[in-house]
Amino acid sequence: MEILRVENLKKYFPVQKSFIEVLLSKELKFIKAVDGVSFGVKKGEILSLVGESGCGKTTVGRLITGLEEPTDGKIYFKGEDVSKLPKDRRKEIYRSIQIIFQDPYASLNPRMKIGEHITDPLLIHDIADNDTARKMAIEMLERVGLVPGEQFFNRLPYQLSGGQRQRVAIARAMVLNPEFIVADEAVSMIDVSLRAAILNLLLSFKEEYNLSMLFITHDLSVAKLVGERIAVMYLGRIVEIGDVDDVIHHPKHPYTAALLSAVPSFDKRDLKVDIRGDVSNPIDLPSGCRYNPRCPFADDKCKESEPELEGDDFHSFACWHPLDIEVE
Ligand SMILES: Nc1ncnc2c1ncn2[C@@H]1O[C@H](COP(=O)(O)OP(=O)(O)OP(=O)(O)O)[C@@H](O)[C@H]1O
Ligand SMILES: [Mg+2]
Questions:
Q1: Relative to the CA of 11, which ligand 1 atom is closest?
Q2: Among 10, 57, 107, 296, whose CB has the most other CB atoms within 10 angstroms?
Q3: Atom of ligand 1 nearest to the CA of 68
Q4: Do the Cβ atoms of 323 and 254 come closer than 8 Å?
Q5: How much is the pLDDT for 182?
Q6: Interatomic CA distance for residues 308 and 300, integer angstroms
Q7: CA distances for 234 relative to 51, 157, 227, 323, angstroms
Q8: Share above pLDDT 70 across residues of the chain, in percent, rounded to a whole number
């Protein structure tokens, strides 16, 4: 069963202009951060979302968690169109979808005790009274490896390491007993030596509660570790999506291959696709396939018309000249 489905999701941010520019120009310009994205996540499944900086990953995560309103498109949670639900039901849904952010230093309030970060959501959502919330928070702190929980409860964020703060962020999300987690670069800012432990903590919750997850990362080797399915995003669109092993070992889109060629741990005998140039401007998108200015295989067709995602649940890609290669 699909727990989440997004259909043709779009988020356009108006470009800020100076007063003079507003007076002189007629057209409003937009940053097309997310520009027609569709995918589904099954119950208990992890979908990794990868792509270079600025391609729209965080915006997708924020749309799903209700932190941002879509410009267009639909979000279905357990089959229900979220935008059509009454306020109470929406609040309930957003309680079951929690987000863990990238920066463990910015996501905690420096003046709030560690424990209060976890009791707060319980009190806000009317789940527990003060005493019960405190007990639940201490239990959750211990569950994420901050032992003894009682002691960690009273500490302030500056007294914790980056890895420990990220454990608090996970505890805060998990205490609401969510069904869906958006983990936005949840291990990117953590010391490499601690990354595996935090990743394993997240995965242990996933196993225990049969959680579904959108795992956002710019690092394909982390996406491979996390496993299951993967979606590759470029300039607001998904260009390739499918089973992790198939996408990583038989990439069809030159952009996926280029991302792979940048990861040291993959054997690149068959990969002759270097990543070149920079991401195009998301305001004035190139015509045709939006990857064409950087693609070594682009021809006239690629400059004229934009390919749609085609394939099946197992593997789909949006490319006029898909690759036929193997990456070990
Ligand atoms: N609130 C906003 N207002 C205007 N533009 C925005 C806003 N949020 C994001 N953008 C723009 O939308 C595009 C996509 O941003 P987003 O943060 O979703 O990318 P990302 O893939 O998460 O990048 P990163 O890997 O750096 O985190 C970028 O061009 C960004 O500048
Ligand atoms: Mg981001």
A1: 12
A2: 57
A3: 1
A4: yes
A5: 96
A6: 17
A7: 6, 36, 20, 17
A8: 94
